[in-house]
Design brief:
heterotrimer; A mainly alpha; B alpha/beta; C mainly alpha; A: 3-methyladenine DNA Glycosylase II, Chain A, domain 3; two-stranded antiparallel sheet; 4 strands; disordered C terminus; B: alpha/beta; Rossmann fold; 6-stranded mixed β-sheet; 4-stranded antiparallel β-sheet; 17% strand; elongated
Chain lengths: 186, 514, 340
């Protein structure tokens, strides 16, 4: 009886020591799952998922507080990738999430802009160049199309323009979606 | 007898070469306008160096190379620049790209040209000359040749010259070799010198006996002891760079590996010719040989100025009724042109006027029955039917895992498929999806960095503000204390007090500012 | 239109048609030795197959003529008919073909998407559901007590009626494989069994010639590059080797390997059933593994299993393994073979 108790206690001590040592020696800073989820999200920082940015949404998904189908810019492909990463089932977009829109960039109408800097403060990726009472302009290459600059503008001079395909971004179409003629755009 | 190696697969489509080798190469002359794209090479678009309305001479620089992978673009003839704008180019999308439109003045006046002796010139300088002469690979990849002539980490043992021309209908290299063999081999010898290669192997398919004879004659007349002309078996796609390297040297160059690192470099015969013209004659690349064949009256090869509209070129060969399309390239890998108004570029080796008789529409597609005929003919030894299943299901990740990017898009698999599945279209779709995904990923990474910096900046601004506020409050406090201290007695103690006040106001004055 | 703009002009229809042609020598010999009843089965099966395929295509909203004309349904029908005893009632062939085409082919996605060989699925369903009817094999010419004429055979197939005084026992006979199984149970040594009149030179009288007919057809297919040699050779070699080992160890209880080659559906399986491209692996190594596995399993099922012939179940069992085999036998691509 006594030997059994001693043996069990000894094993418990050893295992406890190993666990404690591992917890200290192999400690991982931060939550790697959040980073992995964030790597899949499109970084539009638009807030359509009802979180203030992609990292907070990723954190919520990792904590199990948010579903994986809340990101329209990521499209169905994004949901699929999240499902695969987390071992969950694919869920289509819900009723409360906005429909996926074609990629667009913001364009400021210079004639109407009054230089108030409200849009500059709103842009999550600092893609608008300008200063108080100076002309504002959107740096096209950096704009993610999140549309956060559109509501604050007091003179409504910002439009979202759909990005047109150029010769470098043109993609071949899936053959089953092409009619008998060649792959030209309409 | 040199040992030749074998590569897996390959097919034997009817060659249709005799149609266009009956006549010698003819100069196509000056068209009504020349539309020269500024991006007709691999790499970055050339930057325009002329303005609308400028009068320029033949061979004058139109576009300056920009970035490390780029090449120059030149005026094919003398005339006036009518426009620098977006024009529809010879690309399957039918989308426009930046082009310089030149109206010839008929005088065809050259810029003054200088000849250079390559043996007396350092290779660095020769490479720069080739870059500024716009010499790019004329086998179809249009990769800037100067970059391929940089010696690699390892010794280059073999320079392979590609005169195979395996695709049906195309005969431009054949005719070039028959008529200008001397200049080709001299260009090749120069390239060998620049690469410090031990030998030059010129691979020509054995269905071109005249070209083989002409090249052998040129090699022996020039006494190039390290150069050898080798007849390789006629099989498609034996003219693919990797396939030819394998046949001549036994080396298998994997996808993503530069053949240079394995001691071999491969150039098309026309590139060697252009390199020779550029150095020895000071002529930039402004024309090339183009085969015009198919539904035309007199199929033949032309020496065409870059920028010549296709319809004007075809008219020289005699357009026939019943033409239902224009193909740039051959029937296996060619690109259907959006219209016949697009211009000839450095990549245009052949124009086939297609008709219903020549290229009947394919029978309707059946599902894949996994017969593996495609596997038997694939020169890259891939599993085309697996790639097809994945690409069809839009599972591009899986396709990439199955070596999608090793595919050279030769079309042998589609050629043999009994279900008439357009296999290569599926691979092209999958590849462009993957490239688009990578672009999006890169853009997302940059956006993430910018967002994190944005948050950091706001945080930092907040901290700075708080810091300033704290300083202001401290200064106000110190001032009050000083004022009170000023009311008390001693003048001497005032200094002491002042020092104390200073301490309170600026507690970390000793520390360096951030 | 996009490149390539030219094709070699072979088609699925042509391939399937050539396979049908290759079956003809075997069928001709079958008719010679066993009477024309088999032609009735083949005709019934063909009609059912085409009708079922048309109906399924309509239901699945696919172009009917486009797929119907690819001859794949006909091929399934003929293979199934050749696996079923010719004296089976007419509805047996119909049910088997119906199941094979509708369920094991179309419900899995149609041509190219079925994981299991449809003819073998049809056979498996029949042998499990109607084991008795599947034993109505005709005696070879000159061996049965009675010989049925064509009309009489037809009457039996469609109406289940024999002429007066004739019973099923009189006109049917156990197959050579069946015979061996039952005789071995009665403790007769193999050498004695092989002397029985049912056996010809190497295997069953008559059926060995039919097998030879299929070999001829198989050679035709090989020469025309419709099938490749890997599957038949691997299957036959493994079957021979496995049978050979058992035979060498105990010749009294195990039949010689050549017997196994020419009995049952071994030759039909080697050249026509296993070589179905849709259900066999796509890599060369995979094909060897698949066929070797089928050969081994065929022998085991024949000798130790409860069924007379193992081809159908061996094929089906190996069909299950095909996706895994494909994954693990992917060959190295150009340039990545390492250490060349």
């Amino acid at each position: 009886m006594l030997t059994a108790l001693l043996v069990m206690s000894f094993i418990a001590l050893v295992l406890g020591a190993v666990l404690g040592f591992s917890a200290i020696k192999f400690r991982v800073e931060g939550n790697p799952l959040v980073d992995k989820i964030d790597a899949i999200l499109p970084q539009t920082q638009c807030g359509q998922c009802s979180f203030p940015g992609c990292k907070p949404y990723a954190t919520a998904i990792a904590a199990g507080e948010a579903d994986i189908n809340r990101c329209p810019p990521g499209g169905e492909e994004g949901i699929r990738k999240l499902a695969e990463l987390l071992g969950k089932d694919f869920v289509p977009f819900g009723e409360d999430t906005a429909a996926t829109k074609p990629k667009s960039v913001a364009v400021i109408d210079e004639n109407t802009c009054i230089g108030c800097t409200l849009c500059i403060q709103a842009c999550p990726v600092d893609a608008i160049s300008g200063a108080a009472k100076q002309m504002h302009t959107v740096i096209e290459a950096e704009c993610t199309g999140c549309e956060l600059c559109v509501p604050p503008c007091p003179v409504e001079c910002i439009d979202m323009v759909v990005i047109r395909e150029s010769i470098t971004t043109w993609k071949f179409r899936h053959p089953a979606t092409v009619n008998s003629s060649n792959n030209q755009p309409a | 007898m040199r040992k030749l190696y074998h590569f897996n697969g390959g097919v034997h489509p009817p060659t249709h070469k005799a149609e266009s080798t009956q006549l010698p190469i003819r100069h196509a002359g000056l068209p009504s306008r020349l539309v020269v794209p500024l991006h007709q090479h691999a790499g970055s678009t050339a930057k325009p160096t002329v303005r609308v309305g400028d009068r320029i001479l033949k061979g004058q620089l139109f576009g300056m190379p920009e970035g490390s992978v780029s090449s120059a673009v030149h005026a094919p003839t003398s005339g006036t620049v009518e426009a620098i704008d977006m024009q529809v180019v010879a690309h399957p999308s039918g989308l426009p790209d930046l082009c310089v439109t030149l109206i010839p003045d008929g005088r065809d006046e050259w810029l003054p040209r200088t000849s250079t002796q390559y043996l007396a010139t350092p290779p660095e300088e020769l490479r720069l000359m080739l870059r500024l002469a716009g010499v790019v690979g004329l086998g179809g990849a249009v990769f800037p040749s100067d970059l391929k002539l940089r010696p690699g980490k390892h010794k280059v043992k073999t320079l392979v010259l590609n005169g195979a021309e395996c695709e049906p209908y195309i005969t431009c290299d054949d005719m070039l070799m028959r008529e200008r063999a001397d200049e080709i081999v001299r260009g090749a010898e120069m390239m060998r010198h620049m690469l410090e290669a031990d030998e030059v192997l010129i691979g020509i398919e054995d269905n071109k006996p005249e070209a083989i004879a002409a090249m052998q004659k040129a090699v022996s007349e020039n006494h190039f002891s390290k150069m050898e002309v080798i007849a390789v078996p006629t099989i498609y796609p034996g003219g693919g760079a990797k396939q030819l390297i394998r046949v001549l040297t036994g080396i298998e160059v994997a996808a993503g590996v530069r053949s240079l690192d394995l001691g071999v470099q491969c150039f098309n015969v026309a590139t060697a010719y252009s390199a020779h013209r550029a150095i020895e004659h000071g002529e930039p690349l402004i024309s090339r040989i183009v085969t015009v064949t198919g539904n035309v009256q007199h199929a033949q090869n032309f020496e065409v100025l870059i920028g010549t509209p296709v319809n004007e070129l075809v008219a020289l060969a005699g357009a026939k009724p019943g033409t239902n399309g224009h193909i740039m390239g051959g029937p296996m890998m060619g690109v259907p042109l959006p219209s016949s108004q697009v211009a000839v570029t450095k990549a245009t080796n052949c124009i086939i006027e297609s008709s219903l008789a020549l290229f009947p529409p394919p029978p309707p597609e059946l599902p894949c029955i996994r017969c593996t005929r495609c596997v038997e003919v694939c020169p890259a030894e891939l599993q085309p039917q697996d790639l097809y299943w994945f690409a069809k299901a839009k599972n591009v990740g899986k396709a990439q895992e199955h070596h999608l990017f090793d595919c050279i898009e030769c079309g042998a698999c589609s050629y043999v498929c009994p279900s008439n599945i357009p296999l290569v279209q599926y691979y092209r779709f999958a590849k462009s999806e993957i490239w688009a995904n990578e672009r999006e990923k890169d853009a997302a990474n940059i956006a993430r960095e910018r967002h994190e910096f944005h948050l950091l900046r706001i945080e930092r601004d907040k901290q700075d503000k708080a810091e300033k506020l704290a300083q202001k409050e401290r200064a106000a406090l110190a001032a009050k204390a000083a004022a009170q201290a000023g009311k008390s007695a001693d003048a001497a103690s005032i200094d002491v007090l002042r020092a104390q006040v200073r301490e309170i106001a600026h507690p970390d004055a000793g520390l360096t500012k951030e | 239109m996009f490149s390539p703009f030219i094709t070699q002009a072979s088609s699925v229809r042509e391939i399937m048609f050539k396979v049908l042609l290759a079956l003809i020598p075997g069928i001709a010999l079958y008719v010679w030795y066993f009477g024309p009843a088999i032609l009735v089965s083949i005709t019934l099966a063909s009609i059912t197959a085409l009708a079922t395929e048309a109906a399924m295509l309509k239901l699945r909203r696919r172009p009917v003529m486009h797929f119907l004309s690819d001859n794949s349904a006909l091929l399934t029908a003929w293979l199934l008919a050749l696996s079923i005893p010719p004296l089976a009632p007419w509805w047996l062939v119909v049910v088997g073909t119906l199941f094979a085409i509708s369920i094991s082919k179309h419900l899995y996605g149609g041509l190219g998407s079925n994981p299991f060989n449809p003819a073998m699925v049809g056979y498996a369903v029949l042998i499990i559901s109607f084991p008795v009817y599947m034993t109505h094999w005709i005696s070879p010419q000159g061996l049965g007590q009675l010989h049925l004429g064509f009309i009489e055979q037809l009457k039996f197939i469609f109406f289940g009626q024999f002429p007066a005084g004739v019973t099923l026992d009189a006109v049917s006979m156990a197959t050579p494989l069946d015979t061996i199984k039952t005789q071995l149970h009665s403790a007769h040594p193999m050498s004695d069994i092989m002397q029985m009149p049912i056996f010809g030179y190497l295997a069953g009288h008559g059926s060995e010639m039919v097998a030879l007919g299929f070999v001829i057809g198989g050679i035709y297919l090989l020469l025309n590059r419709i099938i490749s040699w890997h599957l038949p050779v691997a299957f036959l070699l493994t079957l021979f080797a496995t049978a050979g080992i058992f035979y060498l160890v105990d010749p009294a209880h195990y039949a010689p390997p050549l017997f196994h080659w020419f009995s049952g559906a071994a030759m039909l399986g080697a050249f026509f059933i296993l070589t179905d491209p849709v259900t066999s692996p796509t890599t060369i190594r995979g094909k060897f593994i698949f066929a070797a596995g089928a050969g081994f399993l065929t022998y085991i099922i024949r000798v130790f299993g409860g069924f007379p012939d193992g081809i159908a179940f061996a094929t089906l069992l190996m069909n299950i393994c095909v996706p895994l085999i494909d994954i693990y036998t992917q060959p190295k691509v150009f340039g990545k073979k390492g250490g060349k």
